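Hi support team,

I've been running sequence recovery on a batch of backbones for a student project. Most finish fine, but this one hangs at about 90% for roughly twenty minutes before it completes. I'm not sure whether the input is malformed or the queue is just slow. I've pasted the structure tokens below so you can try to reproduce it. Let me know if you need the job ID as well.

Thanks,
M.K.
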């Protein structure tokens, strides 16, 4: 007899997630300023810039910048939202581009055209009964703040961010009740330019700089939580972790300890945002590595008093670590975090380990640790989708991936994990954050665009579109 999977909770928020810098395009339209992602080209210079080792303060000749046009969501959002509504979305995760609101980041007054765009976007979502879930900072810093202040190295950014947060909270207080502060905040340690607009000088202590910038972001996050609760009735503000637990390669205690340390590297951020203080293991790490984080007197109280209401997280894969140099030679490709190959699991076309069971384990791990509601705000499969002779895309491989992960998410809920909702990444094809490619597609909706910016931008439904519609209609009962 087949075990019947329980229904997802009533009111579960099904939907999808996109980011301004990967979808909107219109990169200097209506007064928007230049942002960090607008300076990420495709090709060999992309990763050196993302790592903060190649300074770039303006677009370079001869380079292609995919964010400049992206999929033109800025002009086509009504068409796209209609498709999301057809699937039955209950929520859509989007981000606000900071530079649309304050083009330079330190402007005295906000840009009204930018504010109006998001008014129109949220109105369209509400018209279609879709709840906005809005990220304040999704890999997006005004370039002026990088050039003139050193970005999040500089404590002054806390004030600029607080002003930005208060501006959008006040403007959209009747339209948005779910917010996230920083997208995948732990990415600061791995891609510091993406995560915090950091550019390193020769000889600079990178660890010192990254953790000082992290402190500034953590204080800014607390101030955003404070402002949101003062301005918006019944608001829910979350943090956001690039999650995925680390398995020890063996039962060697050294491997187990190394796996714990790798997980703590990411948990550090959420420990502060959720528990309100620096964990003891971080204090030891700072001491052992001669890192001195400069703080102000009020920081400790701010962090303690203004913790987040829920934990948002992305889950794409798990990771494996080992202290054995021979084992370390066998690694997967394409994984930003880096991982030893897991012999029990398959990988995606981009080398990401496919581990549905790890999704359940990670959800339990986070809930056991924080005892706060979770929101799965990213999960999906990047793959090459090729239309057939009739122009249709039968992406059964994506359906299989998502079905397996949703079953494990249901098991996590049965385990007692409180999960608010699920927004898969990205419900429509968008520019890849890591590689800048369009061929790395996640969507239920195909966008006619290639890696060089060619194509009509026409939207068309993939097979997964109809599958996800059935999932939402049945509140997760029908995953076939």
């Amino acid at each position: 007899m087949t075990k019947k999977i329980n229904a997802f909770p009533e009111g579960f928020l099904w939907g999808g997630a996109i980011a301004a810098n990967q979808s909107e395009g219109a990169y200097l339209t209506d007064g928007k300023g230049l942002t960090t992602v607008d300076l990420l080209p495709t090709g060999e210079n992309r990763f050196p810039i993302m790592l903060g080792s190649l300074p770039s303060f303006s677009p370079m000749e001869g380079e292609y910048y995919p964010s400049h046009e992206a999929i033109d969501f800025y002009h086509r959002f009504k068409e796209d939202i209609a498709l999301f509504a057809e699937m039955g979305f209950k929520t859509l995760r989007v981000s606000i581009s900071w530079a649309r609101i304050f083009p330079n980041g330190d402007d005295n007054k906000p840009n009204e055209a930018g504010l109006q765009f998001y008014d129109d976007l949220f109105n369209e979502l509400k018209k279609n009964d879709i709840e906005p879930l809005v990220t304040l900072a999704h890999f997006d810093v005004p370039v002026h703040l990088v050039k003139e202040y050193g970005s999040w190295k500089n404590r002054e950014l806390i004030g600029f961010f607080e002003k930005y947060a208060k501006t959008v909270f006040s403007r959209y207080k009747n339209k948005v009740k779910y917010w996230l502060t920083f997208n995948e905040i732990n990415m600061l340690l791995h891609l510091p330019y993406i995560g915090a607009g950091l550019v390193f000088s020769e000889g600079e202590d990178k660890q010192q700089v990254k953790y000082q910038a992290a402190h500034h972001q953590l204080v800014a996050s607390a101030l955003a939580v404070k402002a949101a609760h003062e301005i918006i009735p019944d608001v829910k503000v979350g943090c956001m972790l690039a999650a995925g637990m680390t398995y020890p390669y063996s039962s060697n205690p050294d491997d187990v300890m190394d796996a714990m340390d790798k997980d703590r590297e990411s948990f550090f951020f959420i420990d502060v945002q959720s528990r309100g203080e620096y964990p003891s293991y971080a204090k030891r790490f700072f001491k052992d590595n001669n890192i001195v984080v400069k703080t102000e007197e009020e920081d400790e109280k701010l962090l303690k008093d203004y913790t987040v209401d829920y934990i948002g997280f992305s889950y794409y894969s798990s990771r494996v670590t080992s202290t054995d140099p021979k084992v370390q030679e066998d690694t997967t490709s394409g994984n930003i975090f880096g991982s030893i190959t897991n012999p029990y699991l398959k990988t995606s076309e981009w080398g990401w380990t496919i581990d549905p069971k790890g999704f359940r384990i990670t959800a339990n791990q986070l809930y056991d640790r924080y005892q706060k509601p979770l929101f799965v705000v990213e999960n999906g499969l990047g793959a090459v989708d090729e239309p057939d002779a009739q122009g249709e895309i039968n992406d059964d491989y994506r359906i299989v991936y998502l079905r397996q992960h949703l079953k494990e998410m249901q098991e996590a809920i049965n385990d007692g994990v409180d999960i608010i909702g699920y927004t898969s990444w990205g419900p429509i094809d968008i520019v890849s954050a890591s590689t800048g490619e369009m061929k790395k597609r996640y969507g239920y909706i195909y966008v006619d665009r290639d890696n060089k910016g060619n194509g009509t931008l026409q939207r068309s439904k993939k097979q997964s579109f109809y599958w996800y519609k059935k999932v939402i209609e049945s509140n997760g009962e029908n995953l076939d």
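--
Follow-up from support: It reproduced on our side and the slowdown came from queue contention, not your input. The chain has a mean pLDDT of 95. No action needed from you.
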